[in-house]
TrEMBL record, chain B:
CDD domains: ABC_NrtD_SsuB_transporters (cd03293). The keyword ATP-binding applies. Pfam families: ABC_tran. Residues 5-238 form the ABC transporter domain. Coiled coil: none annotated. Keywords: ATP-binding, Nucleotide-binding, Transport. Signal peptide: none annotated. It comes from Streptomyces bambusae. InterPro entries: AAA+_ATPase, ABC_transporter-like_ATP-bd, ABC_transporter-like_CS, ABC_transporter_ATP-bind, P-loop_NTPase. This is ATP-binding cassette domain-containing protein. GO terms for molecular function: ATP binding.
Amino acid sequence: MHASPPSPPEGRALQGRALRRRMPAGGGRAPGRLGPAVAAAAAVLAAWQLLALSGAAAPGLLPSPAQTLAALADSAGSGTLATDLGASLARAGQGFALGAVVGGALGFATGYLPLLSAAVTPVVSFLRPIPAIALVPLATAWFGIGETAKRLLIAYAVLLAVWLYVHDGVSRVPVTHLRAARSLGAPLHRRFTEVLLPAAAPALLAALRYGASVALLALVAAELGGAQSGLAYRLQVDGQFLRVDRMFAGLIVLGLLGVAVDLVLAGIGRRFVHREAS
Amino acid sequence: MSRAVRLEGLAVDYGRTSRRAAVPVLDRTDLEFPAGSFTALLGPSGCGKSTLLGAVAGFVRPAAGRVAVGGTQVCGPGPDRGMVFQQYALFPWRTARGNVEFALKRFGLPRTERRRRALAALAEVGLADGVERYPAQLSGGMQQRVALARALAAEPDVLLLDEPFGALDALTRTRMQELLRRLWQRTGTTVLFVTHDIDEALALAERVVVLGGTPGRVLGDHAVPEGPADPALRARIAGHLGTG
């Protein structure tokens, strides 16, 4: 589900071309390339089925695809899946929205104002490598085990991810674009909406896609830290009862959720982001 | 309308950072460019000619002295001074027409009028066919045609060009030079044209100011008479350039 995050930017010497190349390749995911993907999925399913039939694993520890599907249908039928999915989506969605808005705004500010960047970047660079899961105990101590702690934890993780990408993208907007705009009499609000925003749009899209994957990571960390419902919470409960079939089903739902979110964001990007920008 | 540009004791330093002191780039310079004149600023790389242009545009803050356009001191970029850059000047996410319309927006015209003017401006630079193309779909020469149309669409009093044809092939470059002369004659805009090419300077300008040295200063100031090329003048300018 989570492709390893694209490596963070390494300084500003590289120009826009390099940025484009570094963006997750999915930006150019061509439709009509489904054949190889379907074939690979079928191969994995077949291997899984054979492994389950071979009896290599201890009884109950490796469900077949059919058993997993049955577990999935079971949780869908009983309503647990809808409850868990709803709870998780609400947390991840609200946390993502908050983190993306604050991180994006901060990224634009530090990317545009070198002085602010000099002040903020070292702080963020220190915070960024601390995994969100390491903050679960602290979030619980401060905000209890309620929804606030989970949302804030997700928002925090998303904020740092989105800030990094947006900051990098905005700071790489060619200075000539902004100079040309000023020479053409564009006031600050036009320079923002008509130059900075479209020029940084590819980076903004990459930031949101990376941020969404980080939101799911942080969601799992937050729910494992204590919850009454949610996809990761359910995994933990199923784990205690060694219901491997249900755990498989839950993991597959998490994976599909990540893919779906990324497809939606990439689709939005194709609609709004001009490919040659920056 | 066009206006005169005056440099009064203009000096520019570059890059005072925490690691090093300021480096003087342009020595105190006094120059006057009359309204409607066409001047080439000629010199080798690093002689401060682009810096001088940047100071007139308002991108570069003077270390001393001042720039005045039509008697008003320059304190930042503004639409009274149009700029054509060597490269990366067009907005890649806007079509040729969109780029020109960006410049027209400051007049608060209705959409249809803005569009009509943009198309007229592009037709004037010989780009009537490529108006809906993005810069990446245009050749270098066509991109600079759009850049010229965009800069002039804002109706500047002064047109500043920083080696705009440096990256073009010889034939395209000659055509662009002819186009620029034509546009200058029609608009009467004061033109400052930065180049390191002596023949380009002589082909275009009424006056050639030679810059050189570190920090840069004026080495020569030559009027270019109308009519056939004058080998003696070229030799004198080349002597100032120090290229024989």
